Amino acid sequence: MLAVRRSISRMGYRFGCKLLPMLPSWPGEVAFIKMLNTRLSEELQEGLFDFLDNQVLEVTVTDLGIRLRVSKHNQYFVRAPGGRPADSTISANIADFLAIASGREDPDTLFFQRRLCLGGQTEIGLTVKNRLDALDRSRIPQWSQRWLEVIAAELAVVAH
Amino acid sequence: MELVCPAGSLPALEAAVDNGADAAYIGFSDETNARNFGGLNFNDKNALRALDRIRSRGKKLFVAINTYAKPVSFSRWQAAVDRAAGLNADAVILADIGLMGYAAEKHPDLALHLSVQASATSAPALEFYRQQFRIRRAVLPRVLSLKQVQQLTSASRVELEVFGFGSLCIMAEGRCHLSSYVTGESPNQNGVCSPARAVEWRNTASGLETRLNDVLIDRFDAHENAGYPTLCKGRFMVDGKRQHALEEPTSLNSMALLPELKAAGIQAIKLEGRQRSPAYVAQVVRTWREAIDEVLKRGEDFSVKGRWRETLAKNSEGKQTTLGAYDRPWQ
């Protein structure tokens, strides 16, 4: 059973690595920013992400060829204007991003191991990391947290 | 032996308590503490929540106000002590002698812990702080060998806390001005070894370069582990050779010495890492909880388990963990 699951995951992952780089990035970016605005509305109201005002943060998922460019304007996350270079960049593969998101791995550990890379203004990247670490995880629905953990665990095996 | 654990955020504090911390230490979101990074630490609302979580689990909360007050803004450090006292924290961890005087006089019931930043390394120094400010506990600097720690415990009239695990620095605690040499800001007064705004990571053809205020401090080959971008851990040309001239990126791990530390009468073990995520806190605290429980059960028959060593090594800065100065025979 495990072997079947692993092989499906591996196929899915390889398929994603081939397919996703060929697709345009904007639909993913729009969905990602919508999710951020919904999930982090309280934090946005409190001004905890004001440091991103008119700054461009670029998140790159290296193995899937996904690049998400985020900025903030008037209490909302927005898509960063095209053509403007990023002020800060964060990149890693999908397994490592999900390991961080699910609480499996510590970002500094991955940084020491060169699996998570920061570029541009370090202060923006570091503050993003700290703000995300400080989010109250009990607000994430239990099922979605569980799914995140399962996918992160699966990718930790198949994506390396 | 009390396990004192780092918390840079509320989820980290919960991770500490859930995984066996006896006490958590936090800082406020400003330069009054030595982990003054953007997005880290506690505002008043979150500090109250932290206290609530701690009290509901019957644990202790310490507040680190462990930088040195600036003459022009001493009131900010005083206000931090007042906030900690208002919270009803179990102790404040202080280094500045003026601030200790203020806390002892204004809040006589507030327990004082002498921070590692005060760098008190002798019994007379500890006794001075006890007599003058009624400190309850001192965190010993990491420059001491095991033998020196043992000598101090027999002479000291205050509780002693030592570092168990975490990133090592050059260990000139409270006296280090290295980063101010290139950035104008030091850990002692600004709460950061390297202010993030002065740090730049750049991928180049010859490797990953890190610069502090435009000064190149290290270059990592593709397969080399990176460390924190501090001047003390940089590599420099010395006698025609590129090397770690001051300190290698490495982490202290004194777990193997737990039986000796316990026998010497050490009351608390401190884990470093308020700048790390809840994932680090959970893994490291759980490992140390198991180890301390094992020491309490087995005494001198204690040995470090392979999986504990692996977990700590994985979460270390640099490639290695070390006993640090505990094991320097020349001391």
Helix content of chain A: 40-55%
- Which CATH architecture of chain A? 2-Layer Sandwich
| SSE order of chain B, one letter for each helix or strand | EHEHEHEHEHEHEHHEEEEEEHEHHE
Describe the global form of chain B: globular
Strand order of the largest sheet of chain A: 3-2-1-4-5
Radius of gyration of chain A: 16 Å
List keywords for this structure.
heterodimer, A: 160 residues, alpha+beta, Nonspecific Lipid-transfer Protein, Chain A, five-stranded mixed β-sheet, 7 helices, 5 strands, 50% helix, globular, B: 331 residues, alpha/beta, eight-stranded parallel barrel, three-stranded antiparallel β-sheet, 11 helices, 34% helix, SCP2_sterol-bd_dom (chain A), SCP2 domain-containing protein (chain A), SCP2_sterol-bd_dom_sf (chain A), 4Fe-4S (chain B)
Q: Care to describe what's here?
A:
The complex is a heterodimer of chains A (160) and B (331). With 160 residues, chain A is α+β, with helices and mostly antiparallel strands. Chain A has a single domain, classed as 2-Layer Sandwich (Nonspecific Lipid-transfer Protein, Chain A). Chain A contains 7 helices and 5 strands. Chain A has a 5-stranded mixed beta sheet. Chain B is an alpha/beta fold and 331 residues long. An 8-stranded parallel β-barrel of chain B has the order 1-2-3-4-5-6-7-14, surrounded by 6 helices. At the A-B interface, helix 5, strand 5 and helix 6 of A face helix 1, strand 8 and helix 10 of B. Chain A: InterPro entries: SCP2_sterol-bd_dom (IPR003033), SCP2_sterol-bd_dom_sf (IPR036527). Chain A: This is SCP2 domain-containing protein. Chain A: Pfam families: SCP2 (PF02036).
